[in-house]
Amino acid sequence: MTTGEREEQIQNRRNKRKRVQRMKSMIVWTISLWMIISMVLLAFLTVKVISLQHQVNVLSASLTDSSADITSTSDISDALVTTQNGTAESNLADADDTLKVYLTFDDGPSENTDEILDILDDYGVKATFFVVGKSDEESTARYQRIVNEGHTIGMHSYSHQYSDIYSSLDAFQADLSKIQNTIYDATGVETNLYRFPGGSSNKVSNTDMTEYIQYLNSQGITYYDWNVSCGDATSQAYTADELVENVMGDVVKYKTSVVLLHDADSKTQTVQALPKLIESLQSVGAMILPISDDTTVIQHVSLQTDLN
Question: CA-CA distances (angstroms) from residue 16 to 5, 12, 22, 65, 210?
Answer without folding.
Answer: 16, 6, 10, 73, 88
